[in-house]
């Protein structure tokens, strides 16, 4: 079913459907009236010669330079070309697609002053699979994601580059191949296309979807590890968590108990030991806290996805044109730093469980889960790899949002660095996915030593899923391939949003 964009009600689940299942979108019919009204305000002000930032003036420090009415179209074209100064590797097609969707939704609110044909081309590019090539570096995260969004806008005017059906080509070629025509920007439209937070928010939404799924997978893997180490289930009993009533902590404890229900490997308090190490006993507290982070991030993304982040904003009901600062990415910058910290920590505790699985001083399993200890090293070095990744995460988790460098001759003297925060969070998620994949490989190998038939039904199902990707280790082999294959399997599973992500996505 086609998703209607009205600028106010887009959900993360709908974003996932558009990104991963190529669900088509259209502008809500009731939104077109608001869009036309705001456009009329722009055209009236231009015809009357009124001074409006970015419409009849220059940009940034040039805001005091008045532009003649005859030059307002050239002003917008020059803006897009000059601001397309992005650098570095391009964002993924998924992020590019998300940027198209989120910018279209923002313009559909009716506060941006764009024409119908400009917004429609954004929607058409999304539906036809014309994905602008957008460099991932170069945004300060205030005045919007100017450089990334300028590269998006280039394709709409038939310039820049795009990916169409897997092939990289010029923006004009991509439009032609899709049966679309470029637009000629009118007053305000270039600024309306690039003055927003859609790069950081797009990376953030994609990162959130991946992180939410990874958090669910981490719970399942932790349960398998708990069994493989003959962990104590008492610490997960409801009464222990009722007296510290964080809903997310309680949710994780309940999930772990359900996963190990029917296990012949888990133990009770005092049976083998009085209590487990923190990396086992505190799974609900740590994984639950990560879910608190995800809930915070989701809340901010939901607001930002349905926000007007232009400057100036056009209010057709009053005729007011207000220069403000909704383009400033500070809320998303904080959220992305928080997301990175949360996902770094879920990897941190996972690495400690990996150590307990492979260290013969901490368990009664074969040293390093080796099939022939001494002659074969087994999974020894996978723990090194996990330790390397969690250490890298600690560097990446340094908050980008506390930094600011003035720009535009000090007119724009405080910026958010939100897109850097989002990119770092995305890298942390990728690293953490590999760490948890390593834990899954180690836990599965330990389970094969203990006896797969002794696993609980749900963890046995997970074991079989892992084994479809990573065979039982009977002798040393190149484990890098196993890690990457399992991490890719986890990453790709995020596309099954309706099945896998459950309550974390709405």
TrEMBL record:
Residues with the 2,3-didehydroalanine (Ser) modification: 143
Biochemical pathway: Amino-acid degradation; L-histidine degradation into L-glutamate; N-formimidoyl-L-glutamate from L-histidine: step 1/3
A Pfam entry, by short name: Lyase_aromatic
Domain of life according to the entry: Bacteria
Catalysed transformations (reactions): L-histidine = trans-urocanate + NH4(+)
Keyword Acyltransferase on entry: no
Family: Belongs to the PAL/histidase family.
Protein name listed in UniProt: Histidine ammonia-lyase
Protein's organism: Alicyclobacillus ferrooxydans
Taxonomic lineage: Bacteria, Bacillati, Bacillota, Bacilli, Bacillales
């Amino acid at each position: 079913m086609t998703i209607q964009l009205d600028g106010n009600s887009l959900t993360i689940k709908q974003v996932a459907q558009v990104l991963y299942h190529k669900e088509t979108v259209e502008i809500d019919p009731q939104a077109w009236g608001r869009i036309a009204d705001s456009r009329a305000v722009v055209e009236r002000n231009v015809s009357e010669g009124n001074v409006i930032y970015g419409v009849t003036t220059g940009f940034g420090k040039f805001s005091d330079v008045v532009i003649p009415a005859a030059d307002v179209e050239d002003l917008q074209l020059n803006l897009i070309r000059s601001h397309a100064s992005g650098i570095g590797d391009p964002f993924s097609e998924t992020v590019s697609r998300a940027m198209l969707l989120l910018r279209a939704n923002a313009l559909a609110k009716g506060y941006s002053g764009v024409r119908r044909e400009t917004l429609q081309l954004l929607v058409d590019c999304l539906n036809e699979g014309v994905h602008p090539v957008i460099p991932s570096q170069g945004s300060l995260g205030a005045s919007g994601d100017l450089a990334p969004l300028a590269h998006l806008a280039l394709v709409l005017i038939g310039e820049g580059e795009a990916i169409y059906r897997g092939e990289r080509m010029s923006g004009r070629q991509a439009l032609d191949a899709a049966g679309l025509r470029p637009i000629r920007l009118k007053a305000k439209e270039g600024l309306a296309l690039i003055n927003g937070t859609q790069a950081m928010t797009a990376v953030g939404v994609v990162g959130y979807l991946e992180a939410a799924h990874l958090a669910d997978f981490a719970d399942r893997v932790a349960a398998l590890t708990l069994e493989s180490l003959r962990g104590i289930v008492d610490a997960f009993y409801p009464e222990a968590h009722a007296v510290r009533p964080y809903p997310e902590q309680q949710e994780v404890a309940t999930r772990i108990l359900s996963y190990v229900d029917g296990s012949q490997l888990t133990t009770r308090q005092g049976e083998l030991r009085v209590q487990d190490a923190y990396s086992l006993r505190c799974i609900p507290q740590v994984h639950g806290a990560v879910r608190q982070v995800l809930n915070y991030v989701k809340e901010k993304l939901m607001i930002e996805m349905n926000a007007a982040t232009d400057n100036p904003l056009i209010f057709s009901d009053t005729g007011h044109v207000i220069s403000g600062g909704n383009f400033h990415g500070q809320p998303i910058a904080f959220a992305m730093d928080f997301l990175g910290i949360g996902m770094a920590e879920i990897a941190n505790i996972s690495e400690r469980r990996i150590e307990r699985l492979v260290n013969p001083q901490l368990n009664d399993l074969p040293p390093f889960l080796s099939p022939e200890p001494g002659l074969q090293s087994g999974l020894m070095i996978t723990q090194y790899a996990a330790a390397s990744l969690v250490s890298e995460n600690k560097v990446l988790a340094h908050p980008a949002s506390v930094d600011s460098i003035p720009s535009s001759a000090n007119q724009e003297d405080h910026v958010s660095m939100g897109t850097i925060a989002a990119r770092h969070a995305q890298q942390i998620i990728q690293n953490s996915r590999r760490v948890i994949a390593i834990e899954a490989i180690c836990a599965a190998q330990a389970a094969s030593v203990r006896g797969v038939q002794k696993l609980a039904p749900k963890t046995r199902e997970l074991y079989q899923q892992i084994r479809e990707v990573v065979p039982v280790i009977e002798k040393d082999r190149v484990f890098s391939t196993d890690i990457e294959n399992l991490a890719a399997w986890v990453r790709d599973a995020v596309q099954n949003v309706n099945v896998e992500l459950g309550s974390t996505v709405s």
